[in-house]
């Protein structure tokens, strides 16, 4: 890829603002996972409650992505993002000032943290609309690398909780959030090519298109696997291998950082060889590594290596899906980002909660991992079924300059 051509094609300050907003939003979206060991100890939570506590923000974020997608197309991305950031900052301030004293209060906070997860439906259209088709994978990969915020949370939150108490971590998170909010307001710009707002009913007409459902399923596996593991691995390493909260956070951060950083690479590879080919390989690898980890490897270090490999595949898969979506649904990119992102969140909710319930019911995490590995193989079968039609209709060479 010609780097100069990419830089000239869009608006780099907006791309940077979208990345930073997305990064810190994802940091606080999954914050209950890295803090889960301490919260569970203080509130006396069982395995199923721990699984649900870390899964609720993922589910709330999934549902709210639809509404945020609609807001993006009605108010434009910059304003929608500003509203979301204010809500998250206010929720964390209240949690910091008044504390969290029950399982039910963790779930309520989780719902508000879901607004941060919905940032996905803002950051990607904000960046996407500035870039032409041949640069979509790279642009959305860079903006989507804000997934790395989940690694920041895993890396620093457990240590800060040990030093200052887990409630004060919510207050400390406000500092970077407010700084990035100010930067976002100063430099982010809406692209000139923002389609006019349509009646709400128009948005959901896209659900009559079967391709929309395919993309939702494909992303439910790639992103669902990524965020489900990001939310759960601190508790998993603590429960399965007896690592303390801080070391479990470091292990989780390594996994999540791998999956986040390769998202732009996944987008760039998809730009080069085609999203379908790239995504097919990633599903095979993800299923393989999730299957391996399900057996309960003897040491935490062995599990770390396999989880990193799984997250690399899932992260690159995320980039590949969003190389394809703007080609098929360019004018509906706001609502499609919301719908596809919602499906990704639902996949993450399923994985995070099922791991907790599997452990509670069977004493092992194995069934949770195996079922998700099977879903990756099902996605591969689905992708194989649609690829010829996609490449001969909307992805045909005479209709787009992008490789499908």
Structural commentary:
- The chain crosses the membrane at residues 12-32, 52-72, 79-100, 106-127, 139-163, 169-188, 213-236, 248-266, 278-295, 301-321, 333-353, 365-386.
- Belongs to the major facilitator superfamily. Nitrate/nitrite porter (TC 2.A.1.8) family.
- One of its GO terms (molecular function) is nitrate transmembrane transporter activity.
- Pfam families: MFS_1.
- Helix 7 (120-128) runs antiparallel to helix 8 (136-144), helix 7 packs antiparallel against helix 16 and helix 12 packs parallel to helix 16 (333-362).
- The radius of gyration is 20 Å and the shape is globular.
- It has one domain: MFS general substrate transporter like domains (Growth Hormone, Chain: A, Up-down Bundle).
- 80% of the residues lie in helices and 0% in strands.
- It has 404 residues and is mainly alpha-helical.
What's the gist of this structure?
The chain contains 17 helices and no strands.
Topology (SSEs and partners):
Layout: H1 3-9, H2 12-29, H3 36-43, H4 47-75, H5 77-98, H6 103-117, H7 120-128, H8 136-144, H9 149-164, H10 166-187, H11 200-203, H12 210-241, H13 245-273, H14 275-293, H15 300-328, H16 333-362, H17 366-392
GO cellular component, one term: membrane
Family: Belongs to the major facilitator superfamily. Nitrate/nitrite porter (TC 2.A.1.8) family.
Keywords: Membrane, Nitrate assimilation, Transmembrane, Transmembrane helix
